[in-house]
């Protein structure tokens, strides 16, 4: 590869610079890479500052409009949410306190006290009457508030539970154990099995106490009513509301999936802020939920130990700001007109001459080495200097490329002849000795055939009038060589010789490229094989390539030898002393066809060596 680099500067401040690199291959020059660097000149610095002076005030005005509108909408939303969430929290506290007061009054109910203390002294009729009276009062308590889903009185003395509409002759042990202690207490609530309960025991006990209460009165809060209360806070379609434990952060009501996917740090920060504020204070904050940003409002109740939280998508809150986008686009259009007028003014002085120079460079990239720029302006400015230096550079490139191309072609032809001369006598060493043995054994018939094949073979390889032949002639010579070897090996060898496709017969190829590959198989795969030798030669067409596949079942090929063959035929391997056998063939094919041509090695399906002779399909010359 020959590399040519040219560089020049146009003016003192380094406004522009150019570097050119030429890469030549066996086909002459192949690629031209051009890099243009534009530095920080005074002209471009002034243009940049001018653009800033024109555009910054316009966009500042637009930004002020948008920020003011956003602040107005946020203020309106904050006031609205604060009123709603405060009213809902106050109403919820009032309703829960009322239910708790009724629950306390039921604790001194005559029937409940009789059933829980002296039930054994009651007659069956009295016990039934007491249960019915207690059930009726529990039903009235349940119907007194939409926040009550069920009322339950669990009485160990009668081993049963009185519900608002039924009487069960058993006590739910899990529910009893969960509600009898204050372990799950959240303010006045007891949170158990995803439900909120207002519980009252007589006497009141804690988890460490071994004493069992005489009864447990539980009011189960209506989850649907609480969720409806939360939905009343939704002032936007995609807003959400949650009822959360102020102390543990557990979700008491609302969308559990949304609560779980929320940012934990945001939740903890919001809880901490609520704990520090006074009773009834509403907190406003921003919150990331999933991939969206939300505006959050939350209020706490120390008395109930809960936090009421609602959040609204910022996208919906700030939706009305789209009205002001009209002003933004108007200012942007005005900016575009200003930029367009300003660009037209600099186009004539800078851009148009620069485009002419870039166009000339692209012509050189495409291989048009005769490109030149006409210097049709009389002013001695920077672009006149650039054009002149470009023309000088192209002339120098043209001269260097022609010299390198001619030198490479001569070198390739010289090496081709040298490799050709080395391979011509390669088969002569062993063939005459084989013929001598046949004559000595009086095997005249095979000796005659052998002499015929041998004569044709040597006639082919000793004719130097042509360095290249058609592929059909080369295949005939390889088949003659194979017949000679078959006569030498006898029944120890089985040969499969495929038919050359008719349309490939006129391909022009270098002489003696198949026979060395076959000879390699006889030398290394079958030399010490007593029987069972297999040799196959087949043809296949791959796009613009004709591939001749030679396979054997030799047993001496190991992974290291295969790797060495692959390395010796790689593009980055170059050893001028290794010019025999398979490497000879590979080098000649690579010189003739370039990168597609050559030999490709792999392991055959029989376990031996598989050699693919790759020939680029070209018409006969």
Automatic annotation (TrEMBL):
It is a multi-pass membrane protein. GO terms for cellular component: plasma membrane. It is found in: Cell membrane. It holds the Pfam family His_kinase. Residues 348-402 form the HAMP domain. Its main location: membrane. SMART domains: HAMP. This is HAMP domain-containing protein. GO terms for molecular function: phosphorelay sensor kinase activity. CDD domains: HAMP. Keywords: Cell membrane, Membrane, Phosphoprotein, Transferase, Transmembrane, Transmembrane helix. The lineage of its organism: Bacteria, Bacillati, Bacillota, Bacilli, Bacillales. The chain crosses the membrane at residues 47-67, 324-347. SUPFAM superfamilies: ATPase domain of HSP90 chaperone/DNA topoisomerase II/histidine kinase, HAMP domain-like. InterPro entries: Bact_2-comp_sensor_kinase (IPR050640), HAMP_dom (IPR003660), HATPase_C_sf (IPR036890), Sig_transdc_His_kin_internal (IPR010559).
């Amino acid at each position: 590869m020959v590399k040519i680099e040219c560089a020049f500067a146009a003016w003192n401040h380094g406004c522009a610079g150019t570097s050119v690199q030429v890469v030549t291959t066996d086909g002459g020059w192949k690629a031209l890479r051009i890099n243009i660097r534009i530095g920080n000149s005074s002209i471009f610095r002034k243009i940049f500052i001018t653009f800033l002076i024109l555009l910054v005030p316009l966009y500042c005005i637009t930004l002020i409009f948008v920020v003011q509108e956003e602040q107005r909408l946020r203020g309106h939303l904050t006031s609205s949410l604060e009123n709603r969430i405060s009213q809902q929290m106050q109403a919820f506290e009032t309703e829960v306190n009322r239910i708790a007061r009724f629950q306390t009054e039921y604790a001194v109910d005559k029937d409940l006290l009789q059933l829980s203390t002296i039930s054994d002294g009651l007659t069956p009729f009295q016990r039934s009457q007491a249960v019915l009276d207690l059930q009726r009062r529990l039903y009235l308590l349940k119907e007194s508030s939409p926040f009550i889903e069920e009322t339950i009185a669990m009485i160990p003395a009668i081993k049963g539970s009185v519900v608002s509409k039924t009487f069960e002759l058993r006590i739910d042990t899990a529910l009893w154990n969960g509600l009898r202690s204050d372990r799950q207490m959240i303010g006045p609530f007891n949170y158990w099995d995803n439900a909120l309960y207002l519980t009252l025991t007589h006497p009141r006990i804690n988890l460490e106490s071994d004493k069992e209460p005489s009864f447990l009165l539980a009011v189960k809060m209506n989850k649907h009513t609480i969720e409806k209360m939360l939905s009343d806070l939704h002032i936007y379609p995609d807003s959400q509301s949650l009822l959360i434990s102020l102390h543990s952060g557990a979700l008491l009501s609302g969308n559990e999936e949304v609560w779980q996917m929320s940012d934990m740090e945001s939740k903890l920060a919001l809880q901490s802020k609520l704990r520090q504020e006074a009773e009834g204070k509403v907190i406003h904050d921003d919150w990331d939920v999933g991939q969206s940003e939300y505006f959050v409002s939350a209020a706490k109740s120390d008395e109930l130990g809960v936090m009421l939280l609602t959040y609204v998508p910022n996208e919906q809150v700030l939706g009305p700001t789209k009205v002001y986008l009209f002003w933004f686009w108007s200012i942007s259009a005005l900016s575009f007109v200003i930029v367009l007028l300003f660009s037209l003014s600099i186009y004539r002085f800078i851009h148009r001459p620069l485009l002419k120079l870039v166009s000339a460079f692209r012509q050189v990239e495409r291989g048009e080495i005769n490109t030149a720029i006409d210097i049709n302006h009389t002013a001695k400015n920077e672009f006149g200097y650039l054009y002149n230096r470009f023309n000088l550079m192209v002339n120098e490139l043209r001269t260097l490329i022609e010299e390198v191309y001619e030198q490479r072609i001569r070198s390739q032809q010289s090496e081709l002849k040298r490799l050709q001369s080395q391979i011509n006598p390669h088969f002569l060493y062993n063939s005459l000795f084989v013929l001598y043995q046949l004559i000595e054994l009086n095997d005249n018939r095979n000796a005659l055939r052998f002499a015929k094949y041998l004569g044709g073979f040597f006639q082919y390889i000793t004719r130097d009038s042509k360095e290249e032949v058609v592929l059909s002639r080369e295949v005939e010579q390889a088949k003659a060589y194979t017949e000679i070897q078959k006569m030498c090996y006898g029944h120890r060898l089985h040969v499969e010789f495929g038919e050359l496709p008719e349309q490939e017969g006129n391909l022009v190829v270098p002489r003696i490229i198949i026979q060395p590959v076959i000879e390699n198989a006889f030398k290394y795969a079958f030399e010490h094989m007593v029987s069972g030798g297999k040799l196959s030669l087949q043809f296949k067409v791959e796009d613009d390539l004709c591939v001749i596949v030679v396979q054997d079942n030799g047993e001496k090929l190991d992974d290291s030898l295969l790797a060495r063959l692959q390395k010796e035929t790689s593009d980055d391997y170059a050893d001028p002393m290794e010019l025999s056998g398979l490497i000879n063939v590979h080098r000649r094919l690579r010189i003739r066809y370039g990168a597609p041509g050559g030999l490709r090695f792999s392991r055959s399906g029989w376990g031996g060596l598989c050699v693919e002779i790759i020939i680029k399909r070209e018409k006969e010359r």
